[in-house]
Amino acid sequence: MATILSVSGSPSATSRTARLLRHLDDRLIAQGHDVIPLDVRALPPEALLHAQFRHPAIVEATALFERADGIVIGTPVYKAAYSGLLKSLLDLLPQYALAGKTVLPLATGGTTAHVLAIDYALRPVLNSMGPAHITPGWFTLDKEITVADDGTLTVAPGAAEALAQVTDQFSLALGGRPTVLAATG
């Protein structure tokens, strides 16, 4: 199956965005894909802030993008745009780092006023990097993502269904197996 790079652009160590991505990673793994998680916040700040293209961590991150067949990009929305941390990484990648790749954009935020951030802020940047295909993305409200004290993630039913659908579309675009759901009723 495909190799997928799952990129969290959140600067927070307790990020709902990153936890949601890791939850979706499990679904993609169950569909037969190899998933490599990348938390941009784990990259050295000096490499990102000072645009050190040759820093070993940036070289390694670039190699992960090259290796992947598909890329999941997740970001919290701040002031109607994707995170500055994600922008820092995208700026350091080669112009066509997404050439030939299938991309799934995801965003989280506190208000539905930011629901179009994927289409108006993130998608144009991703498109400029030459992907073969950008699948429909999804915006999830923070209040629809709950993290229990033990770290267990719960997504509100409507959001969970929508996320499953866009994740499955992305997986199928990469040649993944459809997820088999148990029949109800």
Explain what you see.
With 185 residues, this protein is α/β, with parallel strands linked by helices. It is built from 6 helices and 9 strands; from the N terminus they run βαβααββαβαββββα. The strands form 2 sheets. Strands 1, 2, 3, 4, 5, 6 and 7 form a 7-stranded mixed sheet that branches. A hairpin with a 5-residue loop joins β8 and β9. It is globular. The relative contact order is 0.18.
Number of E strands: 9
Low confidence ranges: 181-185
What structural class do the secondary elements suggest? alpha/beta
Shape: globular
Domain NADPH-dependent FMN reductase-like: 3-143
InterPro entries: Flavoprotein-like_sf (IPR029039), FMN_Rdtase-like_dom (IPR005025), NAD(P)H-dep_FMN_reductase (IPR051814), NADPH-dep_FMN_reduc_SsuE (IPR020048)
Protein name: NADPH-dependent FMN reductase
GO molecular function, one term: FMN reductase (NADPH) activity
